Known about the structure:
Radius of gyration: 17 Å
Order of helices and strands: EHEHEHEHEHHEEHEHE
Largest sheet: 7 strands, parallel
Helix content: 25-40%
Shape: globular
Number of strands: 9
Number of helices: 8
Amino acid sequence: MGKTLAGKVALVTGGSRGLGAAIALRLAHDGAAVALTYTSSPQKADEVVLAIESAGGKALAIRADSADVEVVKHAVAETVNTLGRLDILVNNAGVATMALIDQFSMDEFDRLVAVNIKGVFVATQEAIRHMGEGGRIIMIGSVSSDSTAFAGSSVYALTKGAMPTAGCANASFTRGLARDLAPRGITVNNIQPGPIETDMNPAEGDFADGLKKITALGRYGQSDEVAGLVSYLASPEAAFVTGANLKIDDGFTA
């Protein structure tokens, strides 16, 4: 098979480990040059870059806290300046703090909003300045915006609900942006993963066992499975898909 993303440049926020790393590696495998941001895992970021370069690809790691507006702007600019263009933005960076609402501090709330909402907005706003026909914006949301399976997830669900197309006005960013950018030939889609195995969300243990009982096949998903859906949305084959909210959750919300 040919490299479906050959000649393209992608920026994956939060791409040093877990789901973000899998996405960066898959986009590079499909031919894209990839920039990835990280906050506190420089070694992990370097490992992803090395893996891409060892396979003949081109990659760049950028230290960038998605809560810092100017730093996010710089990350987009550095991607373009170093790799020459920007065709694909994957808004993957996110944070999660779980607590009952009467135990949730304002500092924690502000951090979630800054990363999960403002960081996504700024990265998108900056990225589209450089995108042309065929540009792709892909949000990584969460099924928590539609359904919460446990107590303590209300604020996280609130911040993730700002990206998908579910329900209220604050949840329509993806769909509204798809309308805004359609005349420029840029598609915007949102992926809602269910329980996905990562180092921060292991597939074994009491918590995981409880979630697996809610899924249809009774298992956690793998990062590579989500990365495959990202790759499809970034490819020319998905040119007619925009404003979509795509769940990959093993029937978690069915």
